[in-house]
Design a protein that fits this description.
- Helices cover 37% and strands 7% of the residues.
- The protein has 113 residues and is mainly α.
- It has one domain.
- Strands 1-4 form a two-stranded antiparallel sheet.
- A hairpin with a 5-residue loop joins strand 2 and strand 3.
- Helix 2 runs antiparallel to helix 4.
- It is globular, with a radius of gyration of 15 Å.
- The two termini are 16 Å apart.
- The N terminus is likely disordered.
- Bound molecules: zinc ion (ZN) (2 copies).
Amino acid sequence: MTTAETRALVDIPAELLPLISLPPLEVLSDARARGAECVWGGEPLSTATAIDLGEREETDGGHWFPRACRPCARRAVLVARNEHPGLCEQCADDSIICKTLRSLRALALELRR
Ligand SMILES: [Zn+2]
Ligand SMILES: [Zn+2]
C-alpha cells in the first residue's frame, strides 16, 4: 500500500523551526520566497513533495512561507543538529537528556526515508 510516491509528508515540529536557518529573503527569487521552489536549491515543489518550513516573519513585519525539497531539508536539519550542542546549556550539561537534540536527530532520520 505504501509506495515511494505516497510516503507520508514530514512535519517539522514547530519548536524546531527556529533552529533551522534559511537563506535571507532578499537574495531569494520570487518563486523561492513564495514556496513554489525549494528555498535552498530551487527545486520545483508540489504539495506532495514539499516540506513546510512554517511561517517566517521578517524584521519589517512581512510574512513568508518557505518550503523545501526533502534532501535540502535534511541537510539543513543536520546542520541544525550539529550546531545545536554548542548553543545549548542543556547539551553542555548533559546532551543525553536534551529533548531538542533528540528531536533534531529523529527529524533527520525521518527525512532520510
Ligand atoms: Zn532543495
Ligand atoms: Zn541541547
